[in-house]
Amino acid sequence: MTPVVHRVQRFRPDLPDLREAPAAFLRTHAARFARVTPWRVAREVFAVLVMLAMDVFPGWLQGDWRTSGLVLAGVGAGYVALYLVRLLFPALALLIGTWVVFGHEHGGLVMIVMLAYGAGYRIASWQRALFTAVLALALHMLAWGVSTPGLSGPFGSFVMLTVYGMAVALPFLVGRYTAQRNALVAALQEREERVVRERRMVSRQVRLRERNRIAQDMHDSLGHRLSLISVHAGALALDTGLGEKQREAVQVLRSAALTAMEELRGVIGVLRRDEPEEDQVRRTVDAIDELVEGARRAGVRVSLVRGGQPVPLPAKVSHAAYRIAQEGLTNASKHAPGASVQVTVKYEPDALVVEVRNNPPRTKRPEGSGFGLIGLGERVRLAGGMLHVGELPAGGFRIAAVLPYEDTAAADDEPSDEVEPEPAKPTGIRKWAGVGSILLAGVVVVVVVGGYTWIGSQPFTKVVDQALYDSIQVGQAEADVMARLPGGAEPPLGDLSSDAPPEPAGATCRYRVADEQSYRSRATRVVRFCFAGGRLVEKTTHLQGM
Q1: What are its E.C. numbers (predicted)?
Q2: CATH 3.30.1450.10 in the chain, residues?
């Protein structure tokens, strides 16, 4: 395919399949209707009330107070129906509204602004949007010639384009820009959600591989060494030369080795599962009693204090409580041998408190690496709790944690180090669609403001004040009257003879704009001087409709 043909096809509108169009239309609008919210309904009702108040009754913009109530009710019903049609057929509603509003003397400017905004917001294809805007301009030009015949010439054309630009084009472009911005925001949100899901999948795969590797290393190294300890302890227990106290100590050693092997198998199983939250069911807060009893048999002076009304706990929270007590007893046995230890499990109104504290040791032992406390802190964090570790004022040591009753685990997804793929850059005219809408809206505003600024800066001297009008009398010579009438630049109001009474037969009339105007009448006051046979035969005033 040649580049020229490719560019031509890009500008060709996408025509729907006529056989599938009705069903697709019904599906689309049924889905939209299902997403209707009370806020959306209230917004539509408010817009209808504003439109009726401004355009129909009391008619602040239309200025026609002589219309009967029945006619106003009919006009209001028609406006509301046309406003609601825009929800299904925005282009058709805009075209009909353009002819209705600009084809009559007192149309609804608020309604046409709403219809133009709705059409720009709802028409998805830029080809259809452009076609609708051009067709609306053509209808506006036809309606303008019917409803305002007095405004002609260059100024009339400028006013016509100004009205179209401010009442139709500008809201249309703003609506289109808003729709494109909302679509962009939705696309960015969808892309962000997709990236987060992909990042979680990659992070999960990395964690699974690392956990499998750690499980394999633990099985090959620690499992083998614990098995040797258990075998040697069992063989030593059979030695007849040992006393009862030594035999009991060897039995405790063998029991500890077997328990360590069992826990190691559980840890390896957890590491190899997909979800690390599924830990052993036996290692719960209720098993702390068994843990404390085992420490007593090993020679640790430990006491257990329970308080509060027990509350059902999530598995992760219950297991974290068990590990806190286990780590506290292990640290006390290792770093403070012979010191008394107190384990506290208390059910507070809003959280579970687990505390292990020990008195100062009798002999100073070297400090450990601290890896156990680091791992314990991570376990508590994943359970949604807080951990406090530190020395007591009297010289002992304390490990305390506050664990929630709900499963409020912190997110454990770490940011992925992989480079995210660059998003696909938009190509073609769609790349500048949103920018083009707002730029065109700015051009419309600049042209309108600049044009009226230029017109307002021009000196218009071809006006007649009231004193001059009163001093000119019927019967005066035409030359004397024309000499007194000001010349120069004429205000750009189009044909001043429009809306004037018929001219006298055989007379030639001259029109001027009056110096004093009343903007409440929504019309321009024009004076007329008619001459016949070289004399002034009539002077009158009339209002030219705006």
Answers
A1: 2.7.13.3
A2: 463-545
The values of phi and psi at residue 10, to 5°, are -65, -35
Tokens of 355: 């505390």
- For the purposes of burial, counting CB atoms within 10 Å of the CB of 503, is it exposed (0-12), middle (13-18) or buried (19 or more)? middle
pLDDT of residue 135: 92
Those residues with Cβ within 8 angstroms of residue 55's Cβ, 6 or more apart along the chain or in another chain: 61, 62, 79, 107, 108, 109, 110, 111
* Helix or strand holding residue 399 (H, E): strand 397-404
Rounded-to-integer distance, Cα 351 and Cα 343, Å = 17
The mean per-residue pLDDT over the stretch 209-222 comes to: 69
Could you tell me if 211 and 249 are in contact, meaning their C-beta atoms sit under 8 angstroms apart?
no
Cβ count within 10 A of residue 231? 12
- Alpha-carbon torsion angle 67, 73, 77, 83, nearest 10: 50
From CA 510, how far away is CA 478, in angstroms rounded? 11
Whether the full predicted model's pTM is greater than 0.70, yes or no, is no
Cα distance between residue 538 and residue 535, in whole Å: 9
d(CA 448, CA 455): 11
Residues 6+ apart with CB under 8 A from 387: 324, 376, 377, 380, 381, 399, 400, 401
285-408 CATH fold: Heat Shock Protein 90 (3.30.565)
Class of domain 463-545: alpha beta
Q: Is the pLDDT of residue 85 over 90?
A: no
CATH 3.30.565.10 in the chain is located at 285-408
